[in-house]
Amino acid sequence: MNTLRQQINVSHSFVTCFLDDAIEIPAGTHEYKFSCQIPSNAATSFEGEHGKVRYTVRAVLDRPWKFDQACTIAFTVLQPLDLNHESEKIGQPMKLERSKSFWFWPCISGPMHFSIELPVSGYVSGQKIPITVNLNNASNIPIHAIRSKLVRKVCFISQTPTRKARNEAKTVAKMVTTVTRDKSDQYTQDLVIPATAPTGKCSIISVEYELKVKVKLGGFRSDQEMTIPITIGTVPFGMSPKVEPVSNSSPGFGWSGGMPMPSGVATPLLSMPELPNTPRSPLPYPPAAPPIGFLPPTYQEAMNQSAVNVNDGEPNAIGFQAYIPRYPVYNFGSPLRM
After folding, report:
1. How far is CA 88 from the centre of its chain?
2. For 234, left (φ over 0), alpha (ψ -120 to 50), or beta?
3. Which of 21, 234, 246, 283 could form an S-S bond across to 279 if both were Cys, CB 3.0 to 4.6 Å?
């Protein structure tokens, strides 16, 4: 797949010499400050097998009559996805039902009925997806287990010379519950969402999520599986940060209120989240409600992802610069159920 590269180029010269003039930088630590405005529509950082969205800063030590030395570091850019401002559909309860009968020649079994319920279909990393599975088995086929997994679906799109797409699916979280009473019972699962890229898309990469719940059957029968689309955001229900204009005198990005953003992460400037006076309606499932003044999320490296050396391929590079994108992870209590 061909690579499409879009760059934001900003160049600064900190120490300059002309012709045969020599400038000697004494031994020690020297700091040269600079800033670069990140476009408001910049795509979220992502590292995948077939493509990536990566932001880097590269410093070059220009040495006359010697090989230049360079060092590149990468940082994470996040495009905010506020669940409170998305489609109301993701704030509605979700329920899927299925009935299945089995042939036992020359007869047919009683129905096996099962359903899956979610309070909403929008979540953030660090949150638990509360899954409720109802079983009503009137057949003689045993049910062994319930397996749930959150799957990230990534589509890599090549624009030139022709438009092509390549899809990749990866399980980011999973759990198994053993069924002890397979005739009629209700089972609950709390699937924790790890640090992972939020739902989103740009011109070359799209990221989506699905919750797959599989009922494992015995008697050499095919397992039954149902799928629910899930939206992973950066701001949870009930917390809606306000986007503030960035001052020319404050080139940094982060949460205000004395909680700076961690090194290597950039987003539009956000104020401390506050609970709205009247949550959007209907909102049947606020997460375990954080108090007013709730701290912003921590930013953790993407789960199950290996570090890459952003200096790889750089001649005369200075050091090994490991990089894994960081995504916001919230710390909630136990999830509320329907």
Report:
1. 20
2. alpha
3. 283
Identify the pLDDT of residue 135: 92
Handedness of CA 187, 147, 212, 171 (dihedral sign): positive
Nearest to 275 by CA among 265, 266, 263, 283: 283
Residue found under tokens 């309606």: 281
CB 328 within 8 A of CB 197: no
Closest CA to 214 of 158, 132, 146: 146
Instruction: Give the integer Cα–Cα distance in Å for 211 and 325.
Output: 23
Per-residue pLDDT tens over the stretch 199-237 = 999 989 999 999 999 999 987 888 999 999 999 999 998
CA distance from start to end of the chain: 45
**Rounded CA gap, 71 and 56, in Å?**
10
Question: What's CA 221's distance to the chain center, in Å?
Answer: 35
User: Does the pLDDT value for residue 110 go beyond 50?
Assistant: yes
Q: What's the CA gap between 131 and 187, in Å, rounded?
A: 8
Q: Which residue has the higher pLDDT, 276 or 72?
A: 72
Least confident interval from 143-147, 297-301, 314-318, 322-326:
314-318
Helix (H) or strand (E) run with residue 200 in it: strand 200-201
Task: Name the amino acid, one letter, at 132.
Answer: T
Distance CA 28, CA 42 (A): 36
Please tell me the number of Cα atoms within 13 Å of 104 on its side-chain side.
Answer: 11
Whole-angstrom distance, CA of residue 138 vs CA of residue 183: 7
The CA distance from 338 to 334, in Å, is 13
Separation between Cα atoms, residue 327 and residue 82, nearest integer Å: 14
**Contacting residues for 329 by C-beta, under 8 A, at least 6 apart:** 125, 126, 194, 195, 297, 298, 299, 300
- Beta carbons of 326 and 124 less than 8 angstroms apart: no
* Residue in 65, 38, 43 with CA at minimum distance from that of residue 53: 43
